Amino acid sequence: MTDSATSGWGGPLSGVRVLDFTRVLAGPAASLALADLGAEIIKVEPPGTGDETRTFPPMRDGESHYFLSINRGKKSIVIDLKTEAGVALARDLAAKCDILTENYRSGVMDRLGLGYETLSALNPRLIYCAISGFGMTGPLKDRPSFDIVLQAMSGALSVNGEPGALPSKLGIPLGDLVGGINGPMGILAALYERSVTGRGRLIDVSLMDGLIGMLGYLAQLAFFTGEDPRPQGSQHPNLVPYGIFPASDGSIVIACLTNSFWGRICAALGMPERTDDPRFDTIEKRRDNRAAINAMISEFTSQRTVEELAALLAEHQVPHAPILGVMEALSQPQAIAREMVVETEHKVLGKIPIVNRSIKFPGDTQPVPDAPPVLGQHTGEILEEILGLTPGQIEALRAAQVVG
């Protein structure tokens, strides 16, 4: 864990302002990526509990681990969008922002009076990114969704798990997190387009579309064969050996992509004669003789420790890895060298460790991200500095419970 060096450079999106109506996971992951790149994120939260994830246990001193994980570097303002005055404030903020992000079901923002057509009339440069489970069109556009639903309907769940067993949900909530990839990608493309045209645009991000797009070669395999790819556990449908193998004190990943790696694996495991074995000398033959290869390798690996195997495989430059728990992954030398865990000062919790930005810019160092905000932490600051309201006007809005 380290405190990163600070500098005056906020990131490549410094000066870009985002009005963020997202909550839970998919949308906040998208605005988090923009925050990491230096954008100013104004997170609009409802009165009371705010973003639903603020209540997700486990908690520490009233703060949720879940909320902390995806809201670093953002500012929080509480606005009651059920009031006309609250909606008016949101419109005023949208007029002064470059980007708006939201992840309500299709039509919700329109009903609030905060849809794209309304806001683009006020601010033609506004880039409006709507993130939802199924997108703004199609028969499922009004249907609610959660990560496991998206995994199931995209085909991703069907190929995950052990052969012959029920499919297994991905451990990482990729169905939601794909919004944190495709949302910012579309936004950054629209920012470039705006630099040419002077106008913003509406972006429609469907999480199911995103997961279908991530099927990659599995989709093409289905097109080629006319059959559904089946679960392979940790193994690859066509590449062998590729997966998890037993060690005397645990297990280890070994991955063979090409024939050159097959020769290295054979040398590392003390059986160089297998390199040219006519049963195993092509990718197709190794796939067809999967059981024999896996048994042969498992017999060798099961008699040695993970550390011994890692040393052998590293010596022969074979792609491999021990299977690390989350705590070990966060504290490994590579993660430390890349400053992937840093400390930041939280308003309630004091110094806390957080995961750092995953994109680096050699030659420039961004300061440590600000801690996730407590509910409404920046309400007064935003109203005063962006909208130019006086302390008296802000107090009147608080008294009327328009803001919190």
From TrEMBL:
Q: By its UniProt entry, which InterPro entries does this protein fall under? A: CoA-transferase_III_domain, CoA-Trfase_fam_III, CoA-Trfase_III_dom3_sf, CoA-Trfase_III_dom_1_sf
Carries keyword Transferase?
A: yes
Gene Ontology MF annotations = CoA-transferase activity
Statement: the UniProt record of this protein carries the keyword Iron-sulfur? no
Source organism, top-level taxon: Bacteria
Q: Name one Pfam family in it.
A: CoA_transf_3
Query: Which ranges does the record mark as transmembrane?
Result: none
Q: Which UniProt keywords apply?
A: Transferase
Quote the protein name from its UniProt record: CoA transferase
According to its UniProt entry, this protein's organism is Sphingomonas cavernae
